[in-house]
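Example S7 (structure tokens).
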């Protein structure tokens, strides 16, 4: 039987064999560990780490600044520093906590589900400091807890000093802990070796005594075999102990090299952090200097355009200022032109021909106006339009209960109640692009295509001014639904829209003016709900054609983003780039809509652009905001500014004349906040009119009920109309299937044989796109009053 003392080595067993001395290995291990380089034991102040950190509270308040204190393995937080003496808001024991990093500034501390802190530092450097301090405190707390549970450990917690800010201290502690464990195991093996030697010697003495009896025959052979095996067992045990001793010595030797390498890495990391922080400060200084130089050259009117909520952020101490993300630097810089340019004649100066100088004279007239017309020729309104609609009812609705199952889906396929709508259709919203039609009127009278480009570009921006407060969703038009906007007697134009496709939803628009311009477009709206925000991507090209000069312009729309879909106040942003191209002359205007940035010091909702000829030479600079106004400046000279470039990119510096206003938003009607923030034109869009087509949006019953404030009835009527549309689509699909069967050919047979009534599908000769173009006949049909060909969709 085995001796029970071989199965467990404890203090009582060692005391039982009191004559066994303490192993030299144990002394060697103690000496090696205790002789390793150590930093002084930190003071209580050094073990404490304090600072402000942003803590996630809830979806309403978001991140709130809290005062956190890390001490003795416990992380506590307070609302203010003054609360430290009496009110603690929460505490987590780091010994059992997990620390994870989300991104550059965010990190999470959790103790297994009962407590979880979602934290955000002011910058990446500060986050790393907190992570380092937390990991160090966690390792120390875990070690202290383990040592308190093991009374036989000869190493005190103070044997492994740690100081806040050491990025590798936790790894160093793990190395030393492993060495202590190995040393303890080798001591146990050494004690076992002593026991084996003792009992082996006793066994050999007993065998020798048996051998001295001079036993013969089989018994003597057995005794000799047992003696040999006992000797081999003892040799093997000694070899095992020696191998373990060599392993420990090797581990100790390598641990010193590891510690030196880790210390070097820690010092290098500290130097890199300091260098990175210094570079961030220098970059911030350069950004501020560059921004200050650019703003010094801006006009006072451009600064006043910020208005309430759009001002620049106040300057703070540079040492305490950090940014999660810097805003994009402008692509060009404008500076006032030399005064000599104002005095020169209209002759060829600095690369500008005489024609352009004449244009400059027309553009710098104040105010900007069309060619003079006699009062007898002016068109005056013949009908008084309404200026009010019923106030929006205050109905509450849980948005999340509807939207939570719609994440990632196409918005046009989501059944939405009218509570999220505004009482106009998408066709009427499309017609609102003509709110500032006078820009096209002025453009049609321009002598120069470059001057005309300025007005067309301003018109492309003006269509977004109505969206700044309009967070309601327009009604999705039914297939075949139309909308006419006849302002020929008042403003000289008339417009027609028709829903030409349902999936994907597409609307065709055609407007013609007696003042020499035509506007047409087909817009398909792609929209996605992303959980926190809604992205609306208009697809399609807008065409503007002018009779004078036969100039043909095209451009596309930018992306609209609706923020705070779930919690908070809804707000809208426009971002992206627009290229307005004159396909007749090759002129081009590149407009950039700057996305909103919390840290930006620039004007909110800013739009900038440059008008260039076909050779890429700049002639005008446009600037302003898409919700307020646009200005233009005549470029007199341009150069490449190397000293203002960043990351090796040079920026173009334009010397310009004084900025002139080309467009300004009309003020909202009185009480607009209770009328869906409709403009004066939008208030008239759904006003009942006689003689319109039976498919006109004004005749849509659910939309009319909503405008009247009867939302429950509007929801029921909306469901009825949508089901009627689905039934009509299924009927068309059956007809298409029967046509395929009769023709015995499935190739080329339409799945849905619907064709638009007033528009026909063809290839655009300019862009090559397949789109619907107005084929005529609507206004003639209206004059006759014969609408027999219109479908029954309502």
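Recovered sequence:
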């Amino acid at each position: 039987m085995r001796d029970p003392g071989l199965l467990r080595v404890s203090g009582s067993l060692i005391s039982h064999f009191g004559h066994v001395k303490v192993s030299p290995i144990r002394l060697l291990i103690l000496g090696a560990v205790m002789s390793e380089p150590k930093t002084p034991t930190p003071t209580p102040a050094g073990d404490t780490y304090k600072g402000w950190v942003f803590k996630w509270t809830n979806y309403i308040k978001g991140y709130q600044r809290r005062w956190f204190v890390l001490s003795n393995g416990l992380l506590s937080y307070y609302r203010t520093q003054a609360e430290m003496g009496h009110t603690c808001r929460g505490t987590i024991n780091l010994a059992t906590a997990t620390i994870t990093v989300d991104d550059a500034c965010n990190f999470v501390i959790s103790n297994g589900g009962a407590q979880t802190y979602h934290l955000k530092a002011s910058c990446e450097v500060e986050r790393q400091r907190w992570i380092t301090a937390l990991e160090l405190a966690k390792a120390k707390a875990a070690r202290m807890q383990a040592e308190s549970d093991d009374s036989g450990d000869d190493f005190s917690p103070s044997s492994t000093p740690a100081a806040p800010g050491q990025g590798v201290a936790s790894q160093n502690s793990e190395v030393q802990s492993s060495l202590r464990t190995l040393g303890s195991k080798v001591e146990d093996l050494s004690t076992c070796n002593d026991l084996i030697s003792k009992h082996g010697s006793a066994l050999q003495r007993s065998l020798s005594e048996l051998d001295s009896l001079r036993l013969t025959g089989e018994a003597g052979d057995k005794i000799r075999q047992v003696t040999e095996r006992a000797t081999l067992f003892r040799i093997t045990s000694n070899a095992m102990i020696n191998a373990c001793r060599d392993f420990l010595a090797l581990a100790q030797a390598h641990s010193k090299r590891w510690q030196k390498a880790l210390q070097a890495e820690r010092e290098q990391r500290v130097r890199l952090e300091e260098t990175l922080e210094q570079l961030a400060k220098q970059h911030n200084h350069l950004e501020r200097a560059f921004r200050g130089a650019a703003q010094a050259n801006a006009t006072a009117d451009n600064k006043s355009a910020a208005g309430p909520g759009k001002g620049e952020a106040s300057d703070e101490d540079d040492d305490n200022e950090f940014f999660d993300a810097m805003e994009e630097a402008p692509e060009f810089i404008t500076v006032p032109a030399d005064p000599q340019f104002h005095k020169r004649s209209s002759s060829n100066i600095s690369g500008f021909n005489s024609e352009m100088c004449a244009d400059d004279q027309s553009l710098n007239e104040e105010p900007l106006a069309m060619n003079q017309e006699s009062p007898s020729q002016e068109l005056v309104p013949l009908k008084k339009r309404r200026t009010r609609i019923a106030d929006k009812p205050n109905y509450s609705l849980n948005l999340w209960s509807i939207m939570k199952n719609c994440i990632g889906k196409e918005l046009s396929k989501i059944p939405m109640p009218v509570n999220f709508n505004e009482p106009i259709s998408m066709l009427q919203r499309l017609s609102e692009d003509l709110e500032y039609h006078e820009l096209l009127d002025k453009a049609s009278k321009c002598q120069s295509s470059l001057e005309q480009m300025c007005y067309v570009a301003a018109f492309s921006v003006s269509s977004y001014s109505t969206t700044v407060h309009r967070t309601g969703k327009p009604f999705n038009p039914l297939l075949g639904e139309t909308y006419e906007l006849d302002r020929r007697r008042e403003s000289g134009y008339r417009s027609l829209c028709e829903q030409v496709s349902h999936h994907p939803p597409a609307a065709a628009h055609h407007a013609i003016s007696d003042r020499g311009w035509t506007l047409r477009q087909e817009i398909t709206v792609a929209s996605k709900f992303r959980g926190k925000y809604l992205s609306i991507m208009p697809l399609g090209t807008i065409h503007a054609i002018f009779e004078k000069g036969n100039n043909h312009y095209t451009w596309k729309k930018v992306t609209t983003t609706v923020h705070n879909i779930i919690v908070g106040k809804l707000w809208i942003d426009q971002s992206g780039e627009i290229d307005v191209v004159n396909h007749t002359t090759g002129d081009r205007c590149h407009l950039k809509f700057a996305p909103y940035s919390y840290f930006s010091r620039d004007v909110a909702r800013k739009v900038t652009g440059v008008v260039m000829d076909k050779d890429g030479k700049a002639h005008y600079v446009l600037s302003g905001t898409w919700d307020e106004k646009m200005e233009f400046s005549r470029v007199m000279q341009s150069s490449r500014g190397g000293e203002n470039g960043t990351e090796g990119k040079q920026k173009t510096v334009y010397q310009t004349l004084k900025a002139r206003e080309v467009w300004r938003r009309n003020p909202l009607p009185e009480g607009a906040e209770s009328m869906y923030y409709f403009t004066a034109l939008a208030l008239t869009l759904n006003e009942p009119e006689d003689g319109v087509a039976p498919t006109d949006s004004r005749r849509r019953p659910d939309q009319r009920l909503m405008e009247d404030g009867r939302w429950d009835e509007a929801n029921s009527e909306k469901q009825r109309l949508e089901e009627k549309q689905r039934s009509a689509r299924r009927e068309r699909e059956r007809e298409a299937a029967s046509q395929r069967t009769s023709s015995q050919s499935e190739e080329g047979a339409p799945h849905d044989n619907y064709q638009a009534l007033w528009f026909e599908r063809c290839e655009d000769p300019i862009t090559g796109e397949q789109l619907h173009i107005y084929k005529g006949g609507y206004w003639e049909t209206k004059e006759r009053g014969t609408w027999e060909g219109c479908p029954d969709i309502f």
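Notes on this example. Residues 758 and 777 are 7 Å apart (CA to CA).
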